Amino acid sequence: MGRDLLIHVKDLRTYFYTDVGVVKAVDGVNLEIGIGETLGIVGESGSGKSITAMSMMRLIPQPPGRIEGGEVLFYGKDLLKLSEKEMMKIRGNEIAMIFQDPMTSLNPVLTVGEQMIETIVLHQKVSRSMAKRRAIEMLERVGIPEAKGRVNNYPHLFSGGMRQRVMIAMALSCNPKLLIADEPTTALDVTIQAQILDLMNNLQQELGTAIMLITHNLGVIAELCQKVLVMYAGNTVEYTDVNTLFAKPMHPYTYGMLESSPKLELRKQRLDPIEGHPPDPYRLPQGCNFAQRCRRIMPVCEREKPTLLEIEPGHFVSCFLYERVKI
Amino acid sequence: MIGTNKATETLLKVENLKKYFPVKKGLVIQRHVGDVKAVDGVSFEIYPGETLGMVGESGCGKSTLGRTILRLLEPTQGKVIFEGQTLNELSREEMRKIRSQMQMIFQDPFASLNPRMRVRDIIGEPILIHGVLNRVEREKRVSKLLDVVGLSTHHGERYPHEFSGGQCQRIGIARALAVNPKLIICDEPVSALDVSIQAQVINLLEDLQAEFNLTYLLIAHDVAMVKHLSNRVAVMYLGKLVELTSSEELYLNPRHPYTIALLSAILLPYPNQKKGRIILKGDAPSPVNPPSGCRFHTRCPETQDICKVMDPELIDIGNKHFVACHLTIHTYEKIKVGNSVTNHQ
Ligand SMILES: Nc1ncnc2c1ncn2[C@@H]1O[C@H](COP(=O)(O)OP(=O)(O)OP(=O)(O)O)[C@@H](O)[C@H]1O
Ligand SMILES: Nc1ncnc2c1ncn2[C@@H]1O[C@H](COP(=O)(O)OP(=O)(O)O)[C@@H](O)[C@H]1O
Ligand code: SF4
Ligand code: SF4
Ligand SMILES: [Mg+2]
Ligand SMILES: [Mg+2]
């Protein structure tokens, strides 16, 4: 691929072993992110987006979860092989993460400042007063008014949009190389979402942080990302640059998903939904996971699983329609 | 029936409706320290067979409005008139009868279904409550309803947890249809569902409207979806309507600064669409102490002095395009004066 990769995930598999069976939450995910690049991950709920991110950060609850295979290469080094102690140096420092609901990741009994100072002191080996200055500077940077005073507030005193700004300030306070944002604007209103995306865009341009943005909103992908990965039932089904994905989607799921949403700027026409619903994660089919819903299904699709192949330069698809082209 | 009387042309009329929730302080002796003005003087009409969309940001009062219309919440002030009858004046018994004409579909498909009831009993419950059919007829109707929403009779024997989100929403729709309502208030009917499933439910809502001549009040924050389904759209901000017009007109010719900002904040699913996006300052203020004058003045890019002191009324600026903004009224007055001058010449 010849470009400088920050992160390269190869064939990642994370399973959950529950009383009622095995959930193959992530079952062969491949992705790469270049330095300073933004990768978007889209997929239905339950398709394994969050578990992919948590696996990369090694935050899977174990048991019931287990990373069963694959590699997470960060600057060429496999994070899955590091000791927990080495991993702690990476988390929050080299790779930071923000979540959909900021309240779940903010500690309600500590002030925003105390939480930020703790992280900064842990990773940057600076004094507490230096860390506090850095915390205020970051809060100002993400647009918190009167940051000097607000740094001493508890999280519940901030609105939803403000909390997400605080989370971003916290995540970026140690200058990470990669920011993983899991549905950062899903809980927010569109006008507030516009503020947060604008902020993330500006910060990325200033700081050069790579972003892995998880969302189910195709508009957010189009707005912010250079590359897109589409997930379906635990697999990568398509991966390419954002222009190609929207102009020439190749996987039947991607195509159906793009077709099925109402278009604001078009005159009304009947929607063309993907029929049916995603497979039960406890009982994935023997063949292609999308087979039950696919309009272009072929006999082979029910027997075998397709593999992710580079069909055109930089355009990866996992579907037998294109494997035949190769054969 | 009122016959050809003009009143039959509107199915539902809402007049200056208000719903306040008291804010109390103190552990032992509770003092009334203020009100959450969730709905604060809303008026509009819905015509038979149409879909009226209601959009606005979280907390602006959409759900409270829907529930106050159905009298699931008692209004603080104002009137709701359904087919010429003022609901607030009805007795409990009269209200019970009329309620079968007005049903609601909720946002969270799982939470709105009783987990311990079989699906057929969930759908049959409103029929039982309104006592319109005997047992055999009821079972027949439930099977028909399951079929209508795209499920099969055997699904009726199962419990809600055995269904996906989209299927649960179909069950909720079947339950709403059970008593042949005229009006259905759909509160965020698809926002909890995945994109591909949303399209299925949207198509279902359209098909049912055509088949049963239903009227919808569609509450949602997804403007593209609301535009797709609605004939007219109302925009709500902090408990008040700020604009109301046909869905095409709202998209092509939005007049209220809030509507303009809202439309410009929507991200289209195409790359390289960086149009001049309006980024509003700050968050929506609290409905407990809403700003004086125009409630949008704290975030409005066009604020004038008058906006801080005077609350603009919702005014028809022509062709039933209603806007509540001093700016529009003034420019409209100017245009009108200009026109009448040219007419005289
Ligand atoms: N029972 C209640 N007691 C006190 N305040 C309430 C109550 N119900 C709603 N509110 C308040 O009234 C306002 C409007 O709430 P409502 O649920 O109608 O908003 P909404 O527009 O439906 O928002 P969303 O898009 O998040 O569903 C909010 O400030 C809310 O906190
Ligand atoms: N702790 C767990 N135990 C069992 N199954 C889980 C657990 N966490 C996640 N899963 C399952 O893994 C799959 C992927 O989940 P997730 O990555 O959270 O999806 P999403 O794409 O919505 O972020 C889902 O089927 C989910 O139910
Ligand atoms: S592999 Fe077959 S079933 Fe799967 S998406 Fe491609 S054509 Fe459809
Ligand atoms: S009345 Fe004034 S503050 Fe309100 S929307 Fe119009 S211009 Fe803005
Ligand atoms: Mg998730
Ligand atoms: Mg609501």
TrEMBL record, chain A:
<feature type="domain" description="ABC transporter">
    <location>
        <begin position="7"/>
        <end position="258"/>
    </location>
</feature>
<dbReference type="InterPro" id="IPR017871">
    <property type="entry name" value="ABC_transporter-like_CS"/>
</dbReference>
<keyword id="KW-0472">Membrane</keyword>
<dbReference type="InterPro" id="IPR003593">
    <property type="entry name" value="AAA+_ATPase"/>
</dbReference>
<dbReference type="GO" id="GO:0016887">
    <property type="term" value="F:ATP hydrolysis activity"/>
</dbReference>
<keyword id="KW-1003">Cell membrane</keyword>
<dbReference type="GO" id="GO:0005524">
    <property type="term" value="F:ATP binding"/>
</dbReference>
<comment type="similarity">
    <text>Belongs to the ABC transporter superfamily.</text>
</comment>
<keyword id="KW-0547">Nucleotide-binding</keyword>
<dbReference type="Pfam" id="PF08352">
    <property type="entry name" value="oligo_HPY"/>
</dbReference>
<dbReference type="InterPro" id="IPR027417">
    <property type="entry name" value="P-loop_NTPase"/>
</dbReference>
<protein>
    <submittedName>
        <fullName>Oligopeptide transport system ATP-binding protein</fullName>
    </submittedName>
</protein>
<dbReference type="InterPro" id="IPR003439">
    <property type="entry name" value="ABC_transporter-like_ATP-bd"/>
</dbReference>
<dbReference type="Pfam" id="PF00005">
    <property type="entry name" value="ABC_tran"/>
</dbReference>
<dbReference type="GO" id="GO:0015833">
    <property type="term" value="P:peptide transport"/>
</dbReference>
<keyword id="KW-0067">ATP-binding</keyword>
<dbReference type="GO" id="GO:0005886">
    <property type="term" value="C:plasma membrane"/>
</dbReference>
<dbReference type="InterPro" id="IPR050388">
    <property type="entry name" value="ABC_Ni/Peptide_Import"/>
</dbReference>
<keyword id="KW-0813">Transport</keyword>
<dbReference type="InterPro" id="IPR013563">
    <property type="entry name" value="Oligopep_ABC_C"/>
</dbReference>
Automatic annotation (TrEMBL), chain B:
<dbReference type="InterPro" id="IPR003439">
    <property type="entry name" value="ABC_transporter-like_ATP-bd"/>
</dbReference>
<dbReference type="InterPro" id="IPR017871">
    <property type="entry name" value="ABC_transporter-like_CS"/>
</dbReference>
<dbReference type="InterPro" id="IPR050319">
    <property type="entry name" value="ABC_transp_ATP-bind"/>
</dbReference>
<dbReference type="InterPro" id="IPR027417">
    <property type="entry name" value="P-loop_NTPase"/>
</dbReference>
<dbReference type="Pfam" id="PF00005">
    <property type="entry name" value="ABC_tran"/>
</dbReference>
<dbReference type="GO" id="GO:0005524">
    <property type="term" value="F:ATP binding"/>
</dbReference>
<comment type="similarity">
    <text>Belongs to the ABC transporter superfamily.</text>
</comment>
<dbReference type="GO" id="GO:0015833">
    <property type="term" value="P:peptide transport"/>
</dbReference>
<protein>
    <submittedName>
        <fullName>Oligopeptide transport system ATP-binding protein</fullName>
    </submittedName>
</protein>
<keyword id="KW-0067">ATP-binding</keyword>
<dbReference type="GO" id="GO:0016887">
    <property type="term" value="F:ATP hydrolysis activity"/>
</dbReference>
<dbReference type="GO" id="GO:0055085">
    <property type="term" value="P:transmembrane transport"/>
</dbReference>
<feature type="domain" description="ABC transporter">
    <location>
        <begin position="12"/>
        <end position="263"/>
    </location>
</feature>
<keyword id="KW-0813">Transport</keyword>
<dbReference type="Pfam" id="PF08352">
    <property type="entry name" value="oligo_HPY"/>
</dbReference>
<dbReference type="InterPro" id="IPR013563">
    <property type="entry name" value="Oligopep_ABC_C"/>
</dbReference>
<keyword id="KW-0547">Nucleotide-binding</keyword>
<dbReference type="InterPro" id="IPR003593">
    <property type="entry name" value="AAA+_ATPase"/>
</dbReference>
